[in-house]
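Per-record layout

source: Vigna radiata var. radiata
name: Thioredoxin-like protein Clot
length: 131
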Amino acid sequence: MPLKLLEATVSSFDGVFEKFRSEAAENKANLILFLADKDPATSLSWCPDCVRAEPVIYKKLEASSDDIALLRAYVGDRPTWRNPKHPWRVEPKFKLTGVPTLIRWDNDTVKGRLEDHEAHLENKIETLFEK
């Protein structure tokens, strides 16, 4: 089954998140991946943990035969993310402390999460998918 991929920035998140939520019941798993923005000069993320985790996460997603929706949410550049008042740091639903953060979203709530230090671990990603 195809992976349903949505992308959002801080400014576009609310609208994209509503679409993600409205289609959630159609999927076996609904995931939100919070990532650092790409550096325009290098086309690579400014976050080394994101660079390490993204290929592992995508490999696991592509190997799955289930209907999975992935919302990639970009937190912004480094100064934007470092602001303690960043919207996703203070949002009670997410309470982000680092990127990447991979969240399992079920029944309109967070059912599991992998923080920056573990988001690249294949066994933890598999466990999150299966919750």
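summary: The chain has a mean pLDDT of 94. The CA atoms of residues 78 and 103 lie 21 Å apart.
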